[in-house]
Design a protein that fits this description.
Two copies of one chain form a homodimer.
Chain A: H1 4-10, H2 24-34, E1 38-41, H3 47-54, E2 64-67, H4 86-91, E3 108-113, E4 123-127, H5 128-142, E5 149-152, H6 159-162, H7 164-170, E6 174-177, H8 183-193, E7 197-200, H9 202-209, E8 224-227, H10 234-243, E9 246-253, E10 258-262, H11 274-281, E11 286-287, E12 291-297, E13 313-319, E14 325-326, H12 330-337, E15 342-350, E16 356-361, E17 366-368, E18 371-373, H13 375-382, E19 388-398, E20 402-411, H14 422-430, E21 441-444, H15 458-467
GO molecular function, one term (chains A, B): trans-cinnamate-CoA ligase activity
Enzyme class (chains A, B): ligase
Keywords (chains A, B): Ligase, Magnesium
Chain lengths: ~475, ~475
Amino acid sequence: MYEMQFGVPMSGAVLNNINTRLDARTVSVLLHHSGSKLVLVDPASLQLPEDALRLLPPEHSAPRVVVADDPHEKELLPAPATALTYERLLEKGDPDFAWVRPANEWEPMILNYTSGTTSAPKGVLHCHRGIFLITLDSLVDWGMPARPTYLWTLPMFHVNGWSFPWGMAVVGGTNVCLRRVDAADVYAAISRHGVTHLCGAPVVLNMLANAPEAVRKTLPGNVEILTGGAPPPAAVLHRTEAIGFKVRHGYGLCETAGLATSCVWNAEWDKLPATERARFKARQGVRTPATAEVDVVDEKTGRSMPRDGSTVGEVVIRGGCVMLGYFNDEAATGAAIGDGWFYTGDVGVMHPDGYLEIRDRSKDVIISGGENISSVEVESVLYGHPAENEAAVVARPDEFWGETPCAFVSLKWGNGRGELTEAELVAWSRERMPRYMVPKTVVFRDELPKTSTGKIQKYVLRNIAKEMGPTSRGVSSKM
Amino acid sequence: MYEMQFGVPMSGAVLNNINTRLDARTVSVLLHHSGSKLVLVDPASLQLPEDALRLLPPEHSAPRVVVADDPHEKELLPAPATALTYERLLEKGDPDFAWVRPANEWEPMILNYTSGTTSAPKGVLHCHRGIFLITLDSLVDWGMPARPTYLWTLPMFHVNGWSFPWGMAVVGGTNVCLRRVDAADVYAAISRHGVTHLCGAPVVLNMLANAPEAVRKTLPGNVEILTGGAPPPAAVLHRTEAIGFKVRHGYGLCETAGLATSCVWNAEWDKLPATERARFKARQGVRTPATAEVDVVDEKTGRSMPRDGSTVGEVVIRGGCVMLGYFNDEAATGAAIGDGWFYTGDVGVMHPDGYLEIRDRSKDVIISGGENISSVEVESVLYGHPAENEAAVVARPDEFWGETPCAFVSLKWGNGRGELTEAELVAWSRERMPRYMVPKTVVFRDELPKTSTGKIQKYVLRNIAKEMGPTSRGVSSKM
């Protein structure tokens, strides 16, 4: 897969990394929408394209499937003898084949379907210029030294691994890949290979922070984690740093091909107490060097909101990393980047010091009695509870308030269901947040539904909350 | 001056940094050629523009002169009360003035007159896009961490300090400036401010390596030096690293706005003996990430030379950092970048591993009996002599051979003239290089003529060698 990030564009084709945990129906929709002609697949996922191809409409001539055998993985069956494998394909290749350079820097290079928190995927198209810019930008932003050892905890199919496939090639990095991202394998890989850098959503930090003592290993040196994809709860940041990881935090979207803002650290914050420091680090930060502008605006008028740290508006971005548009979807493209700015659909505030803080996805905001409640803010408080593993807050219909916050919660190792009650968590929350923000419903779950990149699928939870029916005034209901 | 690297382009003007050690006549030529409208000057150099303005042709309406007082420099007289100072100009400014953004990224941003080794300056024009690219590129290439402390040993008027004025702003660096670049001040600044990075031509390395014990200070930590501008002699690299500096080497020209190649280190070379290591580090290296291509070609046909480490050709460069062209000089622009490649005028070889090694400036090659002699190669051997401080080798006319190598040599502290004779140095050289490369003439000098950026002015030495008259066959002549 790493080689494909180079080989596919160099052959003149457009690269479309597909999430291996999608269902066959969705994969068939993506293959058809992109007009796919060739599918490269790992033997562990071979069933997925086979099922997906059968679901293609008859007019779509089936793409060729190439299986990339993995000689390092003993548990996998090798590809069938009749299959075209990646190695056999390479053997048939022409060693003198000249790299197909793009005719100009605006030619498309990669296509990524947005996945995860919404159920309507759109094909985000980026050009060579954009990928070149984001690659250098992310290296400079992270202060990447020469020859790092990079661990792939962030899947390459997620926004092309935030540009680091190309970035690692630029700085001569060593790529360490994992088949399974679990705490034991991650700690073992860090220790065995002397990993210096890795990326991951807050859920990865949470996994490392809550790992049982038995699988934790002493870090071999300075290990930097870049987190993003969701606002990291202060408690998770704090626990991860206590283990010795150095955590950076940035913000970007599929549409910006990687980080567009970065929470650049201010040395003065070192003097603050740990929880305060984590609160600052949870901010999305300032524009990266190659991002032209970031602002928080009124989504209707496009006017800048006051930089007061409290007036919410839509986050907008301008710069070389913004996508060409959504593939074959002019309406969606026009809606997102109509006036030269990319409207992210994220809701945030701008602090007086110019640091952006995301409050929520527009659709995740809970509107209760006319008050906007940031689900992220409520979750952030819930993460501070010592028994809590993960929390997600969504809107549940309410006959009186319109919506009320409904919390889905999983607890840590050793804390079985029943050790914490709904009433106890609600009481605990009342001491820590305004009354209107306190969840009216708490649902305990062993695990929360997630995308393969570790984002909690709020639309799934929102559907569950909707099916629970409206809460009555002041009365909570249990599942 | 640092503020000007930002303020001038942001006001919509083109920035032209002028070497303060030029003579008034040359400065007046540059001011006139560039159509200068405003001159900002340090009080220490006030006489220079005053004299230059008097030499302007009558049709050129004199540019306004603004004096930037230096409150930290007690030895300088303040600007006359009637003068417009930089601070007074700022006071008259409009705090709401909106940054004049370029209409497009190809608009000119900086103009630098090539100076130094030739006597015919040309105005190298770079656009915003090029400067943006070289700035990120040089940070990535050096693996620049956040918040470095950068010492300005390389003047900002020399190719805009190889892009580091802007680079330091990107990474939140601290800029340490010096009025005088001598060994004592440099060591003192490194120690006092905890300098982490600096740039300088090999002459700066030589100065630091040969500094008397009394002015040397223990380095406060890891101090990295980026050298370029001339091939660093192995012996100088070796001595500088022995003191504890970590030396990187790269290659670029005014026309590429900074480094276009970088001698990226191969860990296997660590196993080699010190002199071998220095020989590898003296190579100009491989293209930087944002440089598209570097090649060594036949200067007439443009065809690539074999990558054998011995076939010389002209070094050519293609990429985003190449200049727009020479200002108001279409003929020179066409000659330099006619076919999409920039012809550097440097002569080099490409090694089988893809590393470029510059052998000489075209005009510095000595042609003796039909053999091309690289002056740099001869100098490199001479620098290995323990008594030698600096060496420069140029062509001297010869009745039989056409040209022969003529060495200008200065000796180290404590080695007065006369302690090493011409015959001794020639004999020493014969043991270390092919006979045809051995200098037929050796001239001892207290100091070699240099440009303000530390480049030895070979054209001055070439003129001296020419005036010495031709050598007769086999007979050397003394000055």
